[in-house]
Amino acid sequence: MAVAVVLLSGAPFHGGCCRHKVFLSLLGPLLSNSKLYSSYRRPGAEPKKKLSWQNADFSFKKSIDHLKTQLSLLTKETQDYLQGPGGHPLSQHVLEQTRVLWQFRSQEDLNKWVISSDVEIGGKSKVYIKLGRNNQAALLYGTLNTEVPRDGETKYSGYCSMRSRPAVGSFNRKKYYDWSNFNSLYLRVRGDGRPWMVNIYTDPYFSHQKDDLYSYFMFTRGGPYWEEIKIPFSKFFFSSRGRVQDNQHPVWLDKASFLTLGLTIGDKVDGPFQLEIDFIGLLNDRAHREEFAYETYDKN
Amino acid sequence: FTTSLLLGTTMTISSNHWIMAWAGLEINTLAILPMISKSHHPRAIEAATKYFLTQATASALLLFSSMINAWQTGQWDITQLTNPTSCLILTSAIAMKLGLVPFHFWFPEVLQGAPLTTGLLLSTLMKFPPITLLYMTSPSLNPTVLTFMAILSTALGGWMGLNQTQIRKILAFSSISHLGWMTIIISYNPKLTLLNFYLYALMTTATFLTLNSTKASKLSTLMTTWTKAPALNVALLLTLLSMAGLPPMTGFLPKFVIIQELTMHDMA
């Protein structure tokens, strides 16, 4: 309050034309739509985008086409619902032991994934994805650079990742899958010997849990031969905002809604990396009897 | 917690005053919350939160209804609910407590997040006080609203349970459907509602205890239980057929007498 009085009283010394600048400097943080915690933009972050309502396209023809697409999706969903759970007969749901979730045979399959690296925090790693030889696999390659961006805030750098886009149904509604029949993740990959981290993000109900992640490691062998890696879901450990939590619990897959799978490399070794992925699927390994690999602390 | 549940249930079903009935419902709500969230899994916490919010809202509506009635009529007796606004608000409060359509969305999620024994309590013991309140106030409630909710509950409970693969969700939709049957007859012959409820509680208890002993929570697990406990599997089969209302099982009896009663009142 005292500062405001001093500034306002000091305005005549600078001329009346500067008085509105005084007001703006006082009220600027309130009037701008910058976030409350910091307006500092990291070197790798994109410049401030337009507001969401400024991006809206009010074209009538496009909206009609969009509506037609969504209605056709809704019709297909209704037909799938009449067939059985997940659009398949109940017998298939009960008897299936394997399921292919993602396979990489065309550009459309690649478009279901998003690649990112530490460029978004100002780092220098590079990551690319393309279809492999004969369109039989996806090739994720790039260069890892652990040089920390000099912004005074960041302490670590050097990661590249590939995440699946969450599945949406008609009218952008979340799609719910039941993966409880399976107990392992099955990947057919050909790596270069570098370790990767497989992350599962389950869309939580509460926003407090939006940083929760279930992770496990995938060690690739390198060499000319493909390898089939099975990672049981019981091995995935729970972390939040990158920190492994003391209270561990297994990942529930009965309502795998908006679930995204991610592969991340961050082994603190500078240099090129390469990973070929044929397909990613689910497996019901009847020999695997473990429910959860880590200790859960029973309270009360 | 079990003692608190019994205390809350006894308080509600034996009370004449609305405040005592409300207090019993609140004790029930608070006592079941730690049982739902016992495993501390995020999904269990989510289920407990959803349960608390809906039940607290319903309790508030119930208290609001009784307060309006007390303001208009000057008395707090449960059986003397005469104000039409109070009756409407009470109907929505009870529907929310029970999980009748259109206030049913919380029930499958809560049952899925809770363990099987807690699910049993949610489906049987927690339904008893609201059913009792419905029974005591049934002469005052609007039959059209009740019939509408009952028909929707029976239909939606059946349709939405069709493509489910998790057993707890299937039993939740079964519960919604049975509640529809209980609600439709309450305006004409409330004793049939109680008969339906007792038989439903018996069948549901048998189902949940069987599933608990075989630790089956999804359909694929249920497919292989016959190798572990064949006799129990056969008993489960008969119990489920009874819940479906197939003669000559016991579950056919309430459905038959309800349809008979509705026919007598030109409703079916």
Automatic annotation (TrEMBL), chain A:
Superkingdom as given in the UniProt entry: Eukaryota
PANTHER family, sorted: COMPLEX I INTERMEDIATE-ASSOCIATED PROTEIN 30, COMPLEX I INTERMEDIATE-ASSOCIATED PROTEIN 30, MITOCHONDRIAL
A GO molecular function held by the record: unfolded protein binding
Role of this protein: As part of the MCIA complex, involved in the assembly of the mitochondrial complex I.
Protein name: Complex I intermediate-associated protein 30, mitochondrial
Species: Hylia prasina
Domain NADH:ubiquinone oxidoreductase intermediate-associated protein: 102-277
Entry's Gene Ontology cellular component terms: mitochondrion
SUPFAM superfamilies for the chain: Galactose-binding domain-like (SSF49785)
Pfam families the UniProt entry points to: CIA30
From TrEMBL, chain B:
Membrane-topology descriptor: Multi-pass membrane protein
One BP annotation, GO: mitochondrial electron transport, NADH to ubiquinone
InterPro entries in UniProt: Complex_I_Subunit_2, NADH_UbQ_OxRdtase_chain2, ND/Mrp_TM
Chief place of localization: mitochondrion
Keyword Mitochondrion in annotation: yes
UniProt-listed Enzyme Commission number(s): 7.1.1.2
Keywords annotated in UniProt: Electron transport, Membrane, Mitochondrion, Mitochondrion inner membrane, NAD, Respiratory chain, Translocase, Transmembrane, Transmembrane helix, Transport, Ubiquinone
Gene Ontology MF annotations: NADH dehydrogenase (ubiquinone) activity
Location(s), subcellular: Mitochondrion inner membrane
An annotated GO cellular component: mitochondrial inner membrane
The UniProt record lists the keyword Ribonucleoprotein: no
Top-level taxon in the UniProt lineage: Eukaryota
Domain NADH:quinone oxidoreductase/Mrp antiporter transmembrane: 15-263
Transmembrane portions of the chain: 17-36, 48-68, 88-107, 144-163, 170-188, 194-211, 231-249
Pfam hit, one: Proton_antipo_M
Catalytic activity: a ubiquinone + NADH + 5 H(+)(in) = a ubiquinol + NAD(+) + 4 H(+)(out)
PANTHER family reported in the protein's UniProt record: NADH-UBIQUINONE OXIDOREDUCTASE CHAIN 2
Role description: Core subunit of the mitochondrial membrane respiratory chain NADH dehydrogenase (Complex I) which catalyzes electron transfer from NADH through the respiratory chain, using ubiquinone as an electron acceptor. Essential for the catalytic activity and assembly of complex I.
Family: Belongs to the complex I subunit 2 family.
Record's protein name: NADH-ubiquinone oxidoreductase chain 2
Taxonomic classification: Eukaryota, Metazoa, Chordata, Craniata, Vertebrata
